[in-house]
């Protein structure tokens, strides 16, 4: 059976990364080995390859041994079975077996598994009908036509639980429709999207005009598309519909709903819509180019402009969509520990997932106040809060840089504006929704989880910018950590005493190693940062990103400058001699430009350095050539391997491919001519840099109960220090 039988192992609630664990698996093992990692195997594939398996959920050791079942991985697998992340491409007959496997692990770990939905994540359509006039905007040469994709008509829908109908309109006002993906989106044949052949064209342009969504469609030259194109030209095929994602809808005073945040994803030519305005245009209209919005999605559904729903397709798709939302509600209720009866009440009331979250929060607070076993409820509520903070943090990071940060497609907060998220936090904290934006920010920063969310986002942005800065000193200096801010000593252990010939019957003599030491201490560098109320009210995530990314870069630049200052300041060592000095044998007698002769002299000086015993040659060759920006090109000329064959031996460059060039502008501030050679830090540590233990890189912390400052204060600091601990692996030439 393709669904692999469960093998009850230990469980783990650690963070889950399927890609990392799959990479650790060994290649060429038998099927029994891979079955310890996955829940499903393709019976038609080679069982000795990873490609034959799906639904990874076991943690894998560095040595490649599958171990405990990861509970987050099991939950993620059930989410895929229920349609998440594009759904599961396995036979329907196997879905139950895979679910039982994953659910068994969750129960072993003390967690109730989510229910298995009856339907996989199929695209949901609502089809409507219309009739239109013959087109006059057809461009035969370009194979294009202008259309009204949506005219602002109201869609009639069916409530799955009551059978009642309700009305939905897609907003076309400022900020209500996301147009960024529509230009370049596919034109489909009646919303079919099973194969590449279902795409019959492309949306070339899209714009808003007089309360309508207009688009220019260009059709394929494929032979199978030609009959469709000819019918469009002849006015036989005139009807148009759109596929859209709806992120948010608000109830109106007349009982209808308005989609205030939605995104068109495709346009289809269809036989029978109902909106008279959804059609091929019969005349040209002035165009207003659409703005580029953020690219996030939360819930998928396909909507066609105008009119009545078409049965029976509409009803089945609608039921599937609502069933998915009800499943989200039941999962949230189960996570809060409120029981199936409470979930039934929410589902029967027709509550949305946002309504349900507020009801869950209110119910937890009510039960907390009425029961004597407060600690148990508080624990449940705390777990729910942690998950919500994590989800909101991920959603905001995704908005900051969608290509860099990820947010699960089922994350309810994806696409939510910063001010709207503040409002959500205030509501979940049990406060009313203030109409005044200033009051909203005050409540959000003082009585909710919103400060923690902002602090998490700020810290992540700062650390990622710090890592991306990649200062050059880390390539040649040695990293260390220190337990505190006291002065630390770094010993240089001398060489093992030389062997002595032992005469017959002679006595073995004992020797000892010599040692020397350098001392230094780390220091703290700090700065306070402020996320202002204006940033929150204006949804200015860009300003927040720039602020904290800038601090991250500054931290990296501070470290870089500190280490290079050790070189350029030529500090005094523990022997009372400067780091670079003739007595240390690491300073050129006179300055010389980078050349074969000067590099040779520097290499010889380093390799003939003696150990602390003054006798043993170290034979340590340079690996790095450290140069200011002014000498970068010259350095590259003498270190890169040429692509040419030299004409004679004297033209050969012996340093080609031997030295690694490190260029840094901090060297230019001291001298635009001086250059340095440095050994591999694994051979001889020369300059050591250190962080406080457990605090590598910059750290952040939000300030609790600040003064009357209107905003969120966050302090950032860096505990860092650097010191030259050995001169024998360094060489300096003043240059020319």
Structure description:
Helices cover 30% and strands 21% of the residues. The chain has 736 residues and is an alpha+beta fold. It has four domains: 11-108, no CATH class; 125-310, no CATH class; 326-448, no CATH class; 583-688 and 726-733. A hairpin with a 5-residue loop joins strand 13 and strand 14 (257-269). The termini are far apart. The model is unreliable at 118-134, 158-164, 273-279, 281-313 and 368-382 (pLDDT under 50).
Mean pLDDT: 79
Give the helix proportion (percent range): 25-40%
Strand content: 15-25%
SS content category: alpha+beta
Q: Count the E strands.
A: 27
Summarize the biggest pleated sheet.
11 strands, mixed
Query: What gap, in angstroms, lies between the N and C termini?
Result: 76 Å
Can you tell me the overall shape?
Answer: elongated
Rg value: 34 Å
Number of helices: 17
Oligomeric assembly: single chain
State the main characteristics:
736 residues; alpha+beta; 4 domains; eleven-stranded mixed β-sheet; five-stranded mixed β-sheet; 17 helices; elongated
Task: Give a concise summary.
This protein is an alpha+beta fold and 736 residues long. It has 17 helices and 27 strands.
Helix and strand layout, with pairings?
Blueprint (H helix, E strand, L loop, with lengths): L10 E2 L5 H7 L6 H5 L4 E2 L11 E2 L3 E3 L5 E5 H11 L10 H17 L16 E2 L17 E7 L3 E5 L6 E6 L15 E4 L9 E11 L2 E8 L6 H8 L6 E12 L5 E13 L9 E2 L19 E4 L9 H24 L3 H9 L4 H18 L3 H27 L17 H11 L8 H11 L2 H20 L8 E5 L5 E6 L21 E6 L2 E10 H5 L3 H28 L27 H12 L16 E4 L4 H6 L22 E4 L1 H4 L6 E4 L8 E6 L6 E4 L8 E14 L5 E4 L3
Parallel strand pairs: 1-5, 6-16, 9-14, 10-14, 17-24, 21-22
Antiparallel strand pairs: 2-3, 4-5, 7-12, 7-15, 8-9, 10-11, 11-12, 13-14, 13-16, 18-19, 20-26, 21-23, 23-27, 24-26, 25-26
């Amino acid at each position: 059976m393709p669904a692999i039988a469960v093998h009850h192992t230990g469980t783990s609630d650690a963070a889950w990364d399927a890609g990392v664990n799959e990479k650790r698996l060994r290649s060429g093992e038998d099927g029994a080995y891979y079955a310890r990692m996955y829940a499903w195997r393709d019976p038609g594939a080679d069982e000795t390859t990873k490609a034959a398996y799906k639904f990874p959920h076991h943690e894998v050791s560095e040595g490649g041994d599958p171990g405990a079942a990861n509970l987050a991985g099991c939950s993620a697998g059930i989410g895929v079975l229920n349609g998440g992340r594009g759904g599961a491409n396995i036979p329907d007959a196997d879905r139950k077996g895979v679910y039982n496997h994953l659910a068994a692990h969750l129960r072993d770990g003390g967690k109730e598994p989510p229910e298995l939905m009856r339907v996989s994540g199929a695209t949901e359509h609502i089809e409507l009908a219309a009739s239109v006039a013959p087109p006059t905007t057809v461009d035969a040469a370009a194979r294009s036509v202008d259309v009204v994709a949506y005219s602002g008509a109201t869609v009639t829908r069916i409530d799955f639980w009551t059978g009642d109908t309700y009305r939905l309109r897609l907003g076309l006002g400022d900020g209500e429709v996301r147009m960024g993906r529509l230009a370049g989106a596919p034109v489909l044949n009646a919303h079919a999207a099973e194969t590449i052949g279902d795409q019959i064209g492309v949306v070339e342009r899209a714009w808003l005009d007089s309360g309508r969504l207009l688009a220019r469609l260009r059709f394929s030259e494929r032979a199978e598309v030609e009959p469709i194109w000819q019918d469009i030209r002849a006015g036989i095929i005139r009807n148009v519909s759109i596929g859209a994602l709806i992120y948010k809808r608000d109830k109106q005073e007349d009982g209808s709903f308005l989609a205030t945040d939605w995104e068109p994803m495709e346009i289809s030519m269809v036989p029978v819509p109902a909106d008279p305005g959804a059609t091929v245009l019969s005349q040209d209209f002035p165009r207003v180019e659409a703005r580029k919005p953020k690219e996030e999605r939360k819930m998928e559904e396909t909507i066609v402009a105008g009119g009545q729903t078409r049965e029976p397709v509409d009803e089945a798709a609608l039921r599937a969509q609502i069933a998915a939302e009800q499943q989200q509600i039941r999962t949230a209720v189960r996570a809060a520990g409120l029981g199936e009866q409470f979930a039934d009440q929410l589902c029967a009331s027709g509550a949305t997932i946002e309504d349900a979250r507020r009801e869950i929060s209110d119910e937890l607070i009510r039960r907390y106040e009425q029961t004597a076993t407060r600690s148990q409820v508080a624990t449940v509520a705390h777990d729910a809060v942690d998950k919500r903070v994590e989800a909101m943090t991920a959603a905001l990071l995704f908005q900051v840089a969608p290509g860099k940060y990820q947010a699960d497609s089922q994350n309810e907060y994806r696409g939510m504006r910063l001010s709207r998220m503040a409002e959500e936090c205030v509501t979940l904290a049990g406060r009313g929704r203030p109409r005044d934006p200033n009051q909203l920010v005050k409540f959000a920063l003082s009585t909710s989880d919103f400060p923690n969310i902002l602090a998490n986002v700020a810290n992540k942005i700062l650390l990622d910018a710090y890592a991306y800065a990649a200062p050059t000193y880390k390539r040649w200096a040695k990293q260390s950590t220190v337990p505190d801010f006291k002065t630390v000593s770094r010993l240089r252990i001398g060489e093992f005493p030389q062997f002595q010939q032992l005469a017959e019957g002679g006595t073995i003599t004992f020797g000892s190693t010599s040692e020397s030491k350098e001392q230094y201490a780390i220091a703290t560098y700090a700065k306070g940062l402020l996320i202002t109320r204006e940033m929150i009210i204006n949804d200015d995530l860009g300003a927040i990103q720039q602020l904290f990314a800038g601090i991250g870069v500054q931290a990296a630049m501070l470290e870089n400058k500190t280490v290079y200052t050790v070189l350029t300041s030529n500090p005094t060592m523990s022997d009372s001699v400067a780091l670079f000095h003739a007595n240390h044998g690491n300073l050129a007698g006179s300055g010389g430009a980078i050349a074969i002769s000067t590099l040779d002299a520097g290499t010889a000086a380093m390799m003939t350095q003696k150990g602390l015993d003054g006798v043993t040659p170290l034979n340590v060759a340079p690996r790095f050539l450290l140069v200011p920006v002014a000498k970068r090109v010259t350095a590259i000329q003498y270190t890169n391997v040429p692509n040419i064959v030299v004409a004679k031996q004297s033209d050969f460059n012996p340093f080609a491919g031997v030295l690694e060039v490190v260029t840094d502008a901090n060297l230019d501030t001291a001298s635009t001519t001086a250059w340095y050679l440095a050994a591999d830090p694994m051979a001889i540590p020369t300059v050591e840099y250190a962080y406080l233990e457990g605090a590598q890189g910059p750290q952040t912390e939000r300030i609790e109960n600040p003064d009357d400052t209107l905003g969120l204060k966050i302090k950032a600091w860096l505990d860092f220090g650097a010191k030259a601990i050995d001169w024998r692996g360094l060489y300096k030439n003043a240059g020319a």
